Each structure stands twice: as structure tokens, then as C-alpha cells.
What does this fold into?
Amino acid sequence: MASSLEYVQFIYEQFSELEDISYRKMFGEYVFYYKGKIFGGIYDNRFLIKVTEAGKKLMPDCKMEYPYDGGKLMFLVENLDNKEFLQRLVIETCSQLPNSKVKKVN
It folds into this structure.
């Protein structure tokens, strides 16, 4: 089941105070970027983010789910109405993610 654009826009609005945040449609779902890093996305109208130690500290009892068959486990974020929490979660998660790799052109 593809995610609804309305749900994506609601989540995106929760990040309205963050600079350099964007999303991109991919295979009927949506991937979120912060400062060029993919940190999570919307999968079947569920907001999932990558697993990091920061996320574990901020959401110690968080459920983990697969975004799609063959994907890696991610945190299911259910506290969607607290903008401050969500923004802190994104900032701290991305601080622990590696920088994007630059593709070499032959």
C-alpha cells in the first residue's frame, strides 16, 4: 500500500523549523533527508527512522518495524504531535549517521 501525500505533508510540517529538510517520492513511498542524509521515511503511512544510539535514548521503548520486505529494521515513531521532540530526534539521529558517499564518475 502506498503512503498518502497528506500524511507525508503532515510529517514534513512537523519539521518546519529545521533548515535543509526535504523528502522525495520513491516507489510509492517517501524518503526524508536532513542536510543531505537519509534518516527515515514514510512507509505504508508509518513514519520510520534509522536505528541509532540517540534514537534508543530518546525512545527507549520504541517498536521496531521493517519498512518493506528485505529492508532493515527501523524505529516506528508514534509520538507525531510533538514537533520539538521530532526535530530533536532528527537532529540527533543524523548526527550519528555517516556522511553520504560521493559517487565517482568514470
In short: Residues 5-95 form a domain with the Yope Regulator; Chain: A, fold (CATH 3.30.1460). The chain has three helices and six strands. The longest helix spans residues 83-95. The longest strand covers residues 37-43.
